[in-house]
Specification:
Layout (H helix, E strand, L loop, with lengths): L1 E3 L2 E3 L20 E8 L5 E9 L1 H12 L15 E9 L2 E9 L5 E3 L10 E3 L2 H11 L3 H5 L5
Antiparallel strand pairs: 1-2, 3-4, 3-5, 5-6, 6-7, 7-8
Length: 146
């Protein structure tokens, strides 16, 4: 009860029904992978589209990678990167860049290239990436030289 100008007003809910509508989580069902040489000017060497359950597995693996604790001096890299665009049907959900050489880092801030969220890839990532693309780990990590 709430008093208002000496009149009593009862606050009673008008409905006890609760919403049963749930938003389904987005499912990543497609990834577009572009292999590019990024020494100016960038050149796309090839592009592949993969669909299926392995797309979600690849994305989960990438986001579970540990952040690089600090920037280090990496071995020489000739600029071969993989641009991964993860989609739910046609909606872009995430964009990540993975470097094939040097420190073999994954850049979680993707195509915007601010390169502030650097993750360290590991052998299990490269094995999964190899399986998803049906390309050997060696071929994935071999950089194209000009």
């Amino acid at each position: 009860m709430v008093a208002c100008n000496s009149s009593a007003v009862a606050l009673v809910p008008t409905s006890t029904a609760t919403s049963t509508t749930q938003t389904a989580p987005l499912v990543l069902n497609k990834v577009i992978v572009k292999r590019a040489r990024n020494m100016p000017p960038p050149i796309i060497e090839w592009e592949r589209t993969v669909e299926g359950i392995q797309v979600e597995q690849l994305h989960r693996k990438l986001v579970s990678l540990l952040p690089s604790p600090y920037r280090i001096s990496c071995p020489i890299s000739f600029g071969t990167d993989y641009y991964l665009t993860f989609l739910n049907n046609s909606q872009v959900i995430d964009e990540i860049i993975v470097n094939a050489g040097g420190c073999r880092s994954a850049w979680m801030d993707g195509i915007i290239k601010q390169k502030t969220d650097q993750r360290d890839t590991d052998d299990s990532f490269w094995e999964l990436f190899s399986k998803v693309l049906d390309i050997s780990v060696k071929d994935l990590q071999t950089e194209t030289r000009r």
